[in-house]
UniProtKB/TrEMBL annotation:
Classification via PANTHER family: ACYL-COA
SUPFAM superfamilies the record matches: Acyl-CoA N-acyltransferases (Nat)
Protein name: GNAT family N-acetyltransferase
Superkingdom classification of source: Bacteria
InterPro entries: Acyl_CoA_acyltransferase, FemAB-like
Short name of any one Pfam family annotated for the protein: FemAB_like
Length: 389
């Protein structure tokens, strides 16, 4: 840990291990945020580090930033020195390439994000707008002092967006697809949800579900401590198989998921598919029982069955959310195909600060053009709503 500087009565510190930050104070700050998610819990971020999933060796060097008023933690954010752009889901590879072509170094860069987790939510944990500004100023000062190319904050909530805009950071948007339970009267069951879809969308889902059922596949759902070590082992085998099939390496270690079972069991829901009594697929969903929100995270299968992915990753979770009275299901990054399954487009945001004035202007111009394209894309998507008028 090192103390960077003071601002008014604030002391700003940088920590090279998330466990150096008091867990109770961190989680208390998180609980005050309207759009809090389980992924910003101290336990989640510590598990990322101590499981060797997000550490120096994998390109995520912790530089957690905290702001103190005496002994009280008044603001904090997860912060990393990144030596690449993997696991972020906001793509700046072209920026890095442009720097390299001009003989400049883009990496390492400074990043505030939850590793490998493209879920919108608070990144600047703060009790007021002034404290958010202190965090942003702290980031830019760290970047300037270390002669870094840039600083970035990914998947911000509305309060963070406002702070970043007021601080003069460049804003970038992309699109995700989220499901919302009907208001004011929530869906009675999955059939009620289907009834609200346009006829061709409803028939397509029914056909996909029928294929899985006719293949003899059944599902069970286990939540929290109901998920056994053997279940976690099977899920992890499916998870790593998916990466191998895409000629890639998994970001998360088996130890990470064990730490989730040990410290955040209440935030996990596991669907397991079986055929002829044998397990053939698994889909892991993160849940927030307090805020009635669910998040699609990881899946994998040991064999191919037509439409099994849709059943495991969308229809089973949506049916569960409806039955449990959950308000929201977020389907993860990208995926326009999710819209035909009742997940609607949502704009997500990231904020960026670049040290080099000419590159900053070039990126600002690019983001203006890209942003106009995203707005047009959203308009187009909203004209193709899957629900009845």
């Amino acid at each position: 840990m090192r103390e960077e500087r003071s601002s008014k009565n604030y002391v700003i510190r940088v920590h090279d291990h998330p466990r150096d930050v008091d867990a109770a104070q961190w989680n208390a700050l998180l609980a005050e945020q309207v759009s809090a998610t389980p992924f910003m819990r101290h336990e989640y971020l510590v598990a990322m580090h101590e499981s060797k999933s997000a550490v120096d060796e994998t390109g995520w060097q912790p530089q957690f930033l905290t702001v103190h008023d005496g002994d009280a933690l008044v603001a904090a954010c997860p912060l990393y020195l990144k030596s690449h752009s993997y696991g972020e889901y906001v793509f700046d590879w072209a920026w890095a390439d442009a720097y390299q072509r001009h003989g400049l170094r883009y990496y390492p860069k400074l990043l505030s994000a939850v590793p490998f987790t493209p879920v919108p939510g608070p990144r600047l944990l703060a009790r007021d707008a002034a404290s958010r500004v202190v965090l942003l100023r702290g980031m830019t000062q760290i970047a300037v002092d270390a002669k870094l190319s840039s600083a970035h904050v990914l998947f911000l909530d509305e309060a963070d967006q406002q702070a970043a805009r007021e601080a003069g950071w460049m804003m970038r948007s992309t699109v995700q697809f989220h499901w919302q339970n009907r208001e004011p009267q929530r869906y009675a069951d999955f059939a009620d949800f289907l009834a609200g879809l346009q006829r061709e969308k409803r028939k397509k889902i029914q056909q996909e579900r029928r294929k899985v059922a006719e293949a003899g596949v059944t599902f069970t759902a286990q939540q929290g401590t109901e998920i056994s070590r053997e279940d976690w082992d099977f899920f992890y085998r499916c998870y790593t198989r998916t990466y191998r099939e895409h000629h890639s390496s998994p970001y998360l270690t088996r130890d990470f998921f064990q730490r989730m079972a040990d410290t955040m069991a209440e935030n996990w829901l596991l669907f397991i598919a079986r055929r002829d009594g044998q397990r053939i697929a698994a889909s892991l969903i993160a849940i927030d029982p307090e805020r009635r929100a669910a998040y699609g995270r990881y899946w994998g299968a040991t064999e191919h069955i037509s439409c099994l992915h849709f059943e495991a990753c969308y229809y089973q979770p949506l049916a569960w959310c409806i039955a449990q009275g959950y308000q929201r299901f977020e389907g993860g990054a990208q995926g326009e195909h999710k819209m035909a399954r009742g997940l609607l487009p949502v704009q997500t945001w990231s904020a960026h600060w670049l040290a080099h004035p000419q590159f900053a202007q070039a990126v600002a111009d690019f983001l203006a053009r890209e942003g106009a394209g995203v707005e047009s894309y959203l308009d187009e998507l909203n004209e193709r709503q899957p629900f009845k008028a």
